[in-house]
Write a structure and sequence with these properties.
The complex is a heterodimer of chains A (282) and B (261).
Chain A (H helix, E strand, L loop, with lengths): L19 H24 L4 H8 L2 H33 L3 H16 L2 H15 L2 E5 L6 E6 H4 L2 H27 L2 H9 L4 H31 L11 H12 L2 H29 L4
Antiparallel strand pairs in A: 1-2
Chain B lengths: L10 E12 L2 E12 L3 E5 L6 H8 L7 E6 L2 E2 L2 E4 L2 E4 L2 H8 L2 E4 L11 H12 L4 H14 L15 H13 L5 E5 L7 H16 L3 E5 L3 H6 L3 E6 L2 E7 H6 L4 H10 L1
Parallel strand pairs in B: 3-10, 3-11, 8-9, 9-10
Antiparallel strand pairs in B: 1-2, 1-4, 4-5, 6-7, 11-12
Helix pairs in contact in B: 3-4, 3-5, 4-5, 5-6
The chains are: A mainly alpha (282), B alpha/beta (261).
Chain lengths: 282, 261
């Protein structure tokens, strides 16, 4: 190859090759979508007026609120339980460690649906009375028939929160293990106690690592609140089913339910993105 | 730096017949030596000779299998009652570590904290010092290691040499009686390691007691009063620095010096 250095700067145009294949593929996909949308509109599969009528109806909003409430309270239970289980697992104490491993095995290994049914139906028959008193005193904290304590809300939170806690404990444990061992050595060398090492150095760094996975689990949990419909808890899916079993507007009402689940997912995604920005990876 | 540290003759560290094994591998075999206040000791030896393990046994990051370690006359990790040694509580051992600074090969700055927060972490969390006083002291130390403009930088935004100087400032913030350096320049290229060597030299001139495991001859020849030379978990030579470099006694010392100087 020879380059003519003496010729001086010459305007050289760069002609990109056309991606005909990519354009063609894109066009085919757009056409397919258009055909489906047109067919759907012609068949009137969804009545837009009905959709908007139910989208903001009181019952539906109540159901959406219930999903957020149960999902969020369950997530709080899961984060607390998961952190405790993860710390137990990593404690080096063989008893605490195996208790934690057993908890994770059972609660991660059985379907959430079974766990919800267990807390609502089986648990109160196993223990008909809840009686909590402070030993050696006359003070009674609670004394109540169990079915009155285990409301559908409590059973849903217990079932979802404890099952999710098993997943969260593994996520948190992974986050803690991902923090460089040198960080603990440096903290210990400064004279920090074990609780300071975890509270000031390890957990803050592990927290950043587990944010994406936790966002994932939170969204999954919000959608899993629909499982609580089996124990008669009035959440979004059960309310939706109640309405369409009376008026047969199945498509519109399922679309309404889907809309609110998507809205919740959007909020969690926004929170997750914000947290990742506020606490960048360092 | 600290007037009490320069009281020559007073004992800073005493290591007596220390033994340590990892799963059968004898990392330290009966190591004994003393460090006087204000002394700077270079701990030399080939990789795997037990230098790091020895340092980690002094502040009980590793629990020794036999022997005793004293820092400023205080038995580390145990309390002697009658003829028996009773292991201390975790809290008491943590308290002993406050006066023993440590600087690591991989810096180990807390990654979620700025340079300033790293330096303040010991005084604020461990010594419960008032925040304002801790910050004032931390800024002085930043200035001392030449990084006053990096107070709000995170470790990932700093070069290795800068990180190690912050780590030295973090150790100094606790006003330690002794500082243990675990190969402070081994992770740095020659140019950056010069910054760290300069910081260590300044401390040596100020009379800070230091025990420095290193491969960096600039530290060993430039700041050390004494050299301890280790091979295979044993202390084979303990000599004043000029003597060690001019007439090393042990065969392995001679081989080592031939390769490193």
């Amino acid at each position: 190859m020879s380059i003519d250095m003496a010729a001086g700067p010459v305007e050289v145009r760069i002609i990109r090759r056309r991606r005909w294949g990519a354009w063609l593929l894109g066009a085919v996909v757009l056409l397919a979508i258009a055909i489906i949308v047109v067919a759907g509109a012609r068949a009137r599969i969804i009545d837009v007026d009905v959709f908007f009528h139910y989208l903001t109806s009181g019952e539906i909003l109540l159901g959406a609120w219930s999903a957020i409430l149960v999902g969020t309270v369950s997530m709080a239970v899961a984060l607390t339980g998961g952190l405790v289980a993860a710390l137990m697992r990593l404690s080096g104490n063989p008893i605490l460690s195996s208790v934690s491993a057993t908890y994770v095995y059972f609660f991660r290994g059985t379907p959430m649906l079974i766990q919800i049914l267990f807390w609502y139906n089986a648990f109160p028959t196993m223990f008909p009375y809840l009686h909590i008193a402070i030993p050696f005193t006359d003070i009674v904290v609670v004394s109540e028939r169990m079915p009155l304590v285990i409301t559908p809300f409590v059973a849903a939170v217990a079932g979802l929160g404890l099952a999710e806690g098993a997943y969260m404990s593994e996520i948190i444990r992974g986050g803690i293990l991902a923090v460089d061992k040198g960080q603990q050595a440096a903290a210990r060398a400064l004279g920090m106690t074990q609780s300071q090492i975890y509270g000031r150095v390890v957990i803050p760094q592990a927290a950043r690592i587990i944010i994406p996975a936790t966002g994932n689990q939170y969204i999954m949990l919000l959608k899993s609140t629909s499982l609580a419909s089996v124990i008669g808890f009035l959440e979004l899916l059960r309310i939706t089913q109640g309405i369409y079993s009376a008026n047969f507007r199945v498509v519109e009402l399922l679309a309404v339910a889907a809309f609110w689940y998507l809205a919740m997912a959007a909020i969690v995604t926004a929170i997750q993105t914000l947290l990742e920005k506020v606490f960048p990876v360092r | 730096m600290n007037a009490s540290n320069t009281d020559s003759g007073e004992e800073a560290i005493r290591v007596e017949s220390v033994q340590k094994a990892f799963a059968g591998f004898r990392a330290l075999k009966d190591v004994s030596f003393n460090v006087r206040n204000g002394e700077v000791i270079a701990l030399l030896g080939p990789s795997g000779s037990g230098k790091s393990t020895l340092l980690r046994c002094i502040n009980r990051l590793e629990v020794i299998d036999g022997g005793r370690v004293y820092v400023h006359g205080q038995l580390i990790g145990y309390q002697q009652r009658g003829g028996d040694l009773h292991e201390m509580s975790d809290a008491a051992i943590s308290a002993q570590r406050r006066s023993i600074g440590m600087v690591f090969q991989s810096f180990n700055l807390f990654r979620h904290m700025t340079a300033l927060q790293n330096i303040m972490s010991g005084p604020v969390f461990v010594l419960k010092a008032p925040r304002a006083a801790a910050e004032r002291r931390a800024r002085e130390l930043l200035d001392k290691v030449g990084l006053a403009d990096k107070a709000h930088s995170y470790p990932t935004e700093l070069s290795g040499g800068q990180q190690q100087r912050i780590a030295i400032a973090r150790a100094l913030a606790m006003d330690p009686k002794v500082i243990l350096f675990d190969e402070p320049t081994s992770a740095l290229d020659p140019e950056l390691s010069q910054e760290v060597v300069a910081a260590i030299k300044t401390l040596a001139e100020e009379g800070q007691t230091m025990l420095i495991a290193t491969h960096e001859m600039a530290i060993a020849q430039g700041c050390a009063d004494r050299v301890l030379f280790m091979v295979g978990g044993e202390l084979v030579e303990d000599a004043a620095a000029p003597e060690f470099f001019s007439s090393p006694q042990h065969e392995r010392s001679r081989q080592f010096l031939a390769r490193h100087t």
